[in-house]
Request: fold
Amino acid sequence: MSKTKATKKKATKKKVSKKVTKKSASKKVAKKASSKKLSKKNVKSVSEGSFKAQAKKELAQDKHIHPRRLLELSRRIHGNKAKHKIAIDMLERYTGHDIKDFQNQIILTNFHKYIETFNETFDDAYHTKGSAFQASSSKEAHVTIIEFGVGSAMAALVGELVSVVNPKAVLFLGLCGAVHRSLKVGDFILPIASIRAEGVSGHFLPPQVPALPTFKIQKFVSQILVENKIEYRTGTIHSTDFRFWEFDQKFKDNLIDERVLAVEMETAALFTICFVSKVNIGALLLVSDCPMQKGGIKTKESAKEVFKKYTAKHIDLGIQAMKEIATRGEKIRHYTW
Reply:
């Protein structure tokens, strides 16, 4: 081989090696750039997915949970440790009770009279007043009663807060206005559903989802009513956040069209929020007035009469149901969505 040919071959080899070196160098630069981009994306995804990781860890034992529900769980007390901690603090602050004071069966009410009657019934009643609610507990009965105020917003709040107690059963003892002409003051209603015409439950479930009680709670309360030979009605009620509806004819016409038995303010919120918070809830309502009839709207005097005549029976049924559900009540399973 001549010297000129050998020189040419060396030159071409150098050129090729230079091209290879340049390509590999450009690839390295590209890799570094892409790795930087990826690291940024990873940081972003980690920050966005931190709650998902936490929820996954907490729910690792549940093999059936849909990944799409992790976002939803982060909003719920049972799926968010930070929210759970704040909820305990808030429940203690609002009621004056320590978390250890709450019993496994809880009665919810709107009125002082029910707390007073509870305190008179049990010698061991431990009564406290918090910044917003008041509560009383009996270890003898294994029951706590909470007075939480009036309206769907307060009902939604107490429904979330009691979930930290992890109660076996919750029963709402509420008052309602009769819609059906056959109802009279003093009648009991065991609602099977409530129309969600208030404003708060939409923050928890889509509007097409019905507000339903826990069937086994209502079944048990029904059994207690039958054992006590007390007549009651069952059907759908209407929950609203509209006060003075009694003077709105359009609203009243709508109640008739809906075929509801009665109207009140808290039940739909309680049923909905307790469902998403994994709380077993039922309701036993007492008809306190008949606003659809002439002169049937509740007044200060008629309210006193209702409390005097029917409160003791109403709360006695609630206490009996909650006391006995502790031993006779069936275990209730919550589905994981």
